[in-house]
Design brief:
CATH topology of the largest domain: 7-stranded beta/alpha barrel
Largest sheet: 8 strands, antiparallel
Strand content: 15-25%
Shape: globular
Distance between the termini: 40 Å
Number of helices: 17
CATH superfamily of the largest domain: Glycoside hydrolase 38, N terminal domain
Number of strands: 35
Radius of gyration: 29 Å
Length: 806
Amino acid sequence: MDRSSCLLLFLAIGITCVATQECGYEKCRSLPIKPGMINVHLVPHTHDDVGWLKTVDQYYSGANSSIQRAGVQYILDSVIPQLEAKPERKFIYVEIAFFKRWWDEQDEDMHGRVKKLFDNCQLEFINGGWCMNDEASTHYNAIIDQMTLGLQFLNMTFGECGRPLVAWHIDPFGHSREQASLFAQMGYDGFFFARLDYQDKANRLKLQNMEEIWRGSPNDLGKVADLFTGALFAHYTPPEGLSFEILNNDPPVQDDPRLHDYNVDERVNTAVNRSVEQAKYFRTDHIMWTMGSDFHYQAAHTWYKNMDKLIKYTNPGNKVNLLYSTPSCYVYHKNQAADVKWNYNNTDDFFPYADKPHSFWSGYFTSRPAIKGYVRECNNFLQVCKQLEVIAGPLPFTNGGLSSQKFTMAVAQHHDAVSGTEKQHVAYDYAMRLHAGAVECQVCEDTCSCVKSGQALFTLFFCAYLNVSICPTTEENDHFSVTVYNPLARQVTGHYLRLPVNGQSYTVTAPNGKPVKTQMLKVTQQTAKVRGPRGNATSELVFPVTVEALGYSTYLISRATNRATSKEQLFMFTSGKGFCFIYLIFDTTTGHLKTVTNLKNKLILNVQQAFYWYNSSTGNNQDSTQRSGAYIFRPNGTEPFPIHTKGSVITKVVRTLVQEVHQVFSDWVTQVIRLYAGQRHAELEWTVGPIPFKDGLGKEIITRFDSDMQTDKYFYTDSNGREILERELNHRLTWKLNQTEPVAGNYYPVNSRIFIKDNSRQLTVLTDRSQGGASLKDGSLELMVHRRMFYDDNFGVGEALNETGS
């Protein structure tokens, strides 16, 4: 795809947003709405996780039924003939990852039948993304990519009318403001979700404020990011007693008078009572029932047969009007009321989510940090590959490899994938898919060498494991070149490369033929321990590079004949020499960071950084039986335990390009703090794990910065890598909080940055993956970096979050 194609694509999307508006709501005007009655919009739906207890493949095929009886292909097989049987019946579908797979297996006859149902407005696609993405652990870039993948399929398959009008995030465990902003910018007219804090929900029910206008970007985009948003009344399941799933215990509608269990009157009374009860909490005379749940409709006839009867017997003689509908039609009729006024006051998000006093879903902000880090790395890699594919042109150089990585990255954004809330075998499956996609995405092996010449003049090798100092090419060769690509729209200068090598001295030549300053550093013991036998490099070659915007630079590297020696001393020290911008001082007793000085602005911050662990609750205290687990963070106390007790052992490495402090807190927690010449920040590289288990205690590991700033209970976190939200300890912006978990109830998702500040100073921590973070005391900032538990939290995973790695 060339640049002009990209521009045309964006223009086409813009046209679609306008052209499909009438197309989308025209169908809603013909619904049998009855003014003056409670109009109950029955929305038949299924919620199909793109991996959770089973892998995405197993969920589609129905395999591994010993874990869960769920097969998405049978849902779609079953629904289609039921919709064809009666024109008033409707069904919505969400997860395009499954629908496209099913669609590709069908013949032309079935394609025609499905398109007819779509044209008749019986089958409607809602949300439209490849998956229903998580909102706490995802980066905005990956959200846009996965939504694009699904929406492109709908557009190519069903035309302009295939564009969904309503967003549907009924299962993610809390909701970000940036997600609402993105949906609004994509042209959605409404957004529905199910999970919100139990205290917040009670307050909204009292005020008839379950539906409102959410301001997704009040300080930046303004009204462009405003979105009609509704919280569902009964989670995303049917009203109590009215589920007609084939294996459900709720009674069907038995309307044959000869039956001893004839129950039409009881079923009608239940429907009327549920309608009247729900209507009390909502504005206008329209309410919505979500008729379905996880992997429902594998036997769709049981649903439609009973809903047909419920409509038939309830509507006559009652002030309740049941009708088949969709979320988009519900939004349309909801907003047709002339006298309705929506609340515009919500500029906050819906984190952290708690469904009970001691059940805060803030553990998954950090769960499975390796997966979270790998997803972020693969996202960055995918953006680079897309750029290189554009630059290099079509086949043979790209080999069509991007499709696989796009699909795997889209699947990984699912709310039980990057969130870390899947079973262990599913986590392995996600990681395997990401790796396979990344391998196919390594188009640069061919494309980089043909950018100028149009021919592959030489072969390039990609080093995927530089994070643990593994690269066979640099380890085994005395002469090699390194090509560095810059995906940014600005020049990058002073970025440092670290290459694993086995020599003692190397020369590096820049693209302009001039020599580059280099530095040799030993591979740390902890890095060597993590990588195991996969690599054998003894040192790292460090040097700065300069790369033009959207360009690349090639550096020639040769092993030198002279032997350079260096000594690393083991000692405690009170001061460290800064590099123009930052000056660090470490405590001689504890080995911890003590002071950070900004030399340019002459600001001094007294700050101590160390590692601690919270003991995970096993549910044996008097307040609640709730345990910590994949979803839930619940420590046994408010004060964490220090990982070291006698101070950390530190090694100071002083060179001309980089200075390092190596800290050893224990045999399973180490850290390297680096200052690079010319850079305005310090780099902290921690290695945590395997978390010890012999004591039988679950551990949730944090790193904490304690400063002398007076922050007045405020701290700040990003929203999906974009805008910043202000947080206040033990406070919620739109409702009064009764805080029952003083630690977990103050944790928020951190996707890229968290900071605290006072009148003159600010301490910011940038993260390389999503984590949970908080400021529990004035001047303090903490991030959870790893977790390991021995009990399940009883929210569905069915196994402990027992990650054994680092």
